[in-house]
Design brief:
CATH topology: TIM Barrel
Order of helices and strands: HHEHEHEHEHHEEHEHEHEH
Helix content: 25-40%
Number of strands: 9
CATH architecture: Alpha-Beta Barrel
Number of helices: 11
Radius of gyration: 19 Å
Bound molecules: S-adenosylmethionine, 6-(5-methyl-2-OXO-imidazolidin-4-yl)-hexanoic acid, iron/sulfur cluster
Strand order of the largest sheet: 5-4-3-2-1-9-8-7-6
CATH superfamily: Aldolase class I
Strand content: 5-15%
Distance between the termini: 42 Å
Number of domains: 1
């Protein structure tokens, strides 16, 4: 592929081939970053980094067997405190606190296999209404859902639903056996049909090949419209999970993954998600140059640590205009 003189092509395409995507991913790093940055600047304000805040509203005891996840009940050696569903008043108070330190989006995760009608789902609906009432974007991730649940969430004002592909269709069976690839697609289409934005991405560092990464990105870019939000997670290896001993992700692999996502999905928000604690300030800035325009802000993701406020403050200071 000739990237010597990239006339910035930021048209929205849904017909990328895996070969094309793999060639982009494998391009010389500086060319790849330059192209991704040009696409980013053509479509987004390069100075705007969206801060999203994450909260686990129901933790642990999940019946699914996702190999990476500390919340799966299948991984009995994981040390995790299971917690029941939080009450909406406390959740909304935490959202308000997140807003006061600059979060624009509040994301709530429940370790459920699927959504069911009942008091718990009613409480989530109340949380969504409360967060929207604060003027923040609201995102939830609750596992699989049916069209009727998606419609109720839409009526409550939900901005986006997070449901990741996690990996390629080819590698998927090595990571999750308790629900199928098709189950994932069905949930995503219910979300879309209800008019809710899709937040859909995946994880690198689970033992997948570069071809798998390109293949996952092809499925994402094949959705029409593209997912509005694409979280790219680096595996956080958690003791007691089957992936506890995976080698850490090379920061430059994450840069390549983000740059490729940015090039093939020019208009989407690309989120530098799990894995930031292992990245230097400079590596994170490379991810932002490569097209990431959102991070999770706050000291915890769902159950694992995220950078402390002080190191994020240092990151924001480094990004800001210098005072001479
Ligand atoms: N149960 C819901 C589901 O699977 O849709 C929602 C919660 S789940 C924790 C949300 C996403 O977090 C997963 O799809 C996965 O991509 C990411 N995730 C979970 N554990 C992770 C880990 N240890 N490292 C990196 N990403 C992780
Ligand atoms: C996503 O793709 N990453 C976030 C969000 N969606 C919900 C979650 C990351 C979780 C990391 C492991 C944990 O803290 O439990
Ligand atoms: Fe359950 Fe979601 Fe974790 Fe899978 S990723 S075990 S579905 S909480």
């Amino acid at each position: 592929m000739n990237m010597q003189n990239p006339a910035i092509d930021n048209t929205l395409r849904h017909d990328w081939t895996v070969d094309e995507i793999e060639a982009i991913y494998c391009a010389p790093l500086l060319e790849l970053m330059g192209r991704a940055n040009a696409v980013h600047r053509a479509r987004h304000d390069p100075d705007h980094l969206q801060k999203a805040s994450l909260l686990s509203i129901k933790t642990g005891g999940c019946p699914e067997d996702c190999a990476y996840c500390p919340q799966s009940a299948h991984h009995r050696e994981v040390k995790i405190d299971r917690e029941q569903l939080m009450d909406p008043v406390s959740v909304i108070a935490l959202a308000e606190r997140a807003r006061s330190v600059g979060a624009e989006r509040f994301c709530m995760g429940a370790a459920w296999r699927r959504v069911r009608d009942g008091a718990a789902f009613d409480a989530v609906i109340e949380m969504v209404r409360g967060v929207r009432g604060l003027g923040m974007e609201a995102c939830v991730t609750l596992g699989m859902l049916e069209p009727c649940h998606a419609e109720r969430l839409a009526a409550a004002g939900l901005t986006a639903y997070n449901h990741n592909l996690d990996t390629s269709p080819e590698f998927y069976g090595k990571i999750i056996t308790t629900r199928t690839w098709q189950d994932r697609l069905d949930t995503l289409s219910a979300v879309r049909r209800a008019g809710i934005d899709l937040c859909c991405g995946g994880i690198i560092g689970m033992g997948e090949s570069i071809r798998d990464r390109a293949s996952m990105l092809q499925v994402l870019a094949g959705f029409a419209p593209h997912p509005e939000s694409v979280p790219i997670n680096a595996l956080v290896p958690v003791a007691g999970t089957p992936l506890a001993h995976r080698d850490p992700v090379d920061a430059l692999e994450l840069v390549r993954m983000i740059a490729t996502a940015r090039i093939i999905m020019p208009a989407s928000t690309v989120r530098l998600s799990a894995g930031r604690t292992d990245l230097s300030r400079e590596a994170q800035i490379m991810c932002l140059l490569a097209g990431a325009n959102s991070i999770f802000y706050g000291e915890k993701l769902l159950t694992t640590p995220n950078p402390e406020e002080s190191s994020d403050t240092a990151l924001f200071r480094a990004l800001a205009r210098m005072v001479a």
